Amino acid sequence: MTDALHLADLPREEADRYRGAADRPLGGYLGLLGAYSAATGLGALAVRRRGPLPDRPSLTDLGLVALATFRSSRVLTKDSVTSPLRAPFTEYEGPAGNAELHEHVRGRGAQKAMGELLTCPFCVSQWIGTGLTFGMLLAPRATRQVAGAMSAMAVSDLLQFVRAYLEKVSSR
User: Could you tell me the pTM of the whole model?
Assistant: First the structure.
């Protein structure tokens, strides 16, 4: 019986050795990894049932998905309007540049892991990109419309920054 108890303690002991004195919510990360894997598996199953895959995505679709993933990840992780989605996992610290917020991740365990995901545009882009890719395979017309709108916003943001820069340069 003691061997069984010792085996049950191994994952916690390994996690403790890994994180040392740092607050790393490995159990929360494991839960997020499980959710991502389950969603990806369900998406793959739906795509497989749908029929054969195209040989390759078009360059237009790749561009739309890339721009839409970029813009969507910024909206989800930094935008003021989406802060209620992050509020259970973060604490407001102040503005962070043009139309973005700086928030501090709070909590422990799953709450902290979710906060880290929802405040990291690089982290959440994997989830969004995967969703848009499945969308392109399962509902390409609707996904192109959504991705097109998000891509237009990304280009609009770029133009806003270019305009602000040109105004700054011309006022010197």
Answer: 0.85
Q: Is the CB of residue 99 less than 8 Å from the CB of residue 77?
A: no
Q: How many whole angstroms separate alpha carbon 93 and alpha carbon 100?
A: 11
Nearest alpha carbon to residue 106 among 114, 98, 94: 114
Tokens representing residue 56 in the block: 């390759």
Encoded amino acid at 10, one letter: L
- Tell me the average confidence (pLDDT) per consecutive run of 10 residues in the chain, 172 residues long: 67 74 86 97 96 92 97 97 97 90 95 97 98 97 97 95 92 84
Q: In this predicted structure, what is the pLDDT of residue 172? A: 81
Contact (Cβ atoms closer than 8 angstroms) between residue 28 and residue 15? no
The number of C-alpha atoms within 13 Å of 40 and in the hemisphere containing its C-beta is: 11
CA angle 91, 86, 94 (to 5 degrees): 40
Q: CA torsion angle for 85, 87, 88, 90 (degrees, to 10)?
A: 120
